[in-house]
Amino acid sequence: MKRMKCIISYDGTHFAGYQIQQNKRTVQGELERVLSNMHKGEAIRVAASGRTDAGVHAYGQVIHFDSPLHLPSEAWKKALNAMLPDDIAVREVQEVDDSFHARFSAVAKEYRYKIRIAREKDVFSRHYYYHYPYPLDCQAIERALELVKGTHDFTSFCSARTEVEDRVRTIYEANIVCNHDELEFQWIGNGFLYNMVRILVGTMLEIGQGKRPWDCIPSILEARDRRLAGKTAPPHGLYLWEVFYDN
Description:
This protein has helices spanning about 25-40, 75-85, 140-150, 195-210, 215-225; strands at about 1-10, 45-50, 55-65, 90-95, 105-115, 130, 150-155, 170-180, 180-190, 240-245. With about 250 residues, the chain is α+β, with helices and mostly antiparallel strands. The chain has 2 domains: about 1-95, Pseudouridine synthase I, catalytic domain, N-terminal subdomain (Alpha-Beta Plaits), CATH 3.30.70.580; about 110-245, 2-Layer Sandwich (Alpha-Beta Plaits). Strands 1, 2, 3, 4, 5, 6, 7, 8, 9 and 10 form a 10-stranded mixed sheet that branches. α3 runs antiparallel to α4.
């Protein structure tokens, strides 16, 4: 039995999320369907670095699965891409040690959030950028992002439906990149809570509009109250960009 690690990209527009759900189209469901076909009907379970919600995209999601098939990495990649739907692509395949786990071996993740701030809506980017046609003070946002970095309890910045009790996370990088009528938030941390990135983005946009002072972040964190943070930004601007491992 060999353990295979894959880096995959997917367009989340027409998926109900990554994780399998009954009677719904999911990324995991498509992956396991193809793998089952390759293994003559045998069920092959796939583990991922984490779940993404409906409408959320991935550039560098990482998965692993165990298989008795003896195929070189390039053959795996070619076969999977030939059978998967057009909105999933396998970027890389490699054989790894049995101790590797896509989720539990990860030491950090990077998420990016893309925004169009042009006045007019662009129909061709509507599934991949959040259209936000309002002037923003990027300097205020940059100051606020500095206050997010570090180790904090992010209870105020996660959904009330978050199931885990330990909500302390470390943010290593929190940046904003401005390019004409496009903005991109970049977040790197050792882990992220349910809706955490989208709530952080929503809060930063309110700061950029002057609805909140840039130095409000510490008091929101300290309160541990979701009601004090900003709105949850929509899913279609969010990308799971990269997953980091010790090696």
